[in-house]
Amino acid sequence: MRRPAERFGFTQARLAAPIGVPVATYRNWEPRRTALPSGIRALFDILDREPETAKRALNPPATAA
């Protein structure tokens, strides 16, 4: 199974930021060194099932200056 960040072409930092966790925490989740909180597990399931929707949600439109 490819890691979530790889599947979407994001860096680990780019995927950790919108869910509000330090990159180090995210890095421990990917290889399952630490248990995923249930909410994050659900988020990863959504990423798997609805990748295009998830990508849009993670890439909000730029605001006009």
Describe this entry's structure for a reader.
This protein has 65 residues and is mostly helical. The protein has a single domain (4-56), classed as Orthogonal Bundle (434 Repressor (Amino-terminal Domain)), CATH 1.10.260. The chain is built from five helices and no strands. The longest helix has 12 residues, at 38-49. The chain is globular, with a radius of gyration of 12 Å. The N and C termini lie far apart (40 Å). The mean pLDDT is 79.
Summarize the structure.
By secondary structure, this protein is mainly alpha-helical.
Strand percent estimate: under 5%
Q: Report, as a whole number of angstroms, the end-to-end distance.
A: 40 Å
If you consult CATH, what is the topology?
434 Repressor (Amino-terminal Domain)
Uncertain spans:
none
Count helical runs.
5
Number of domains: 1
Total beta strands: 0
Q: Can you identify the CATH class?
A: Mainly Alpha
Order of helices and strands: HHHHH
The oligomerization state is single chain
Rg from C-alpha positions? 12 Å
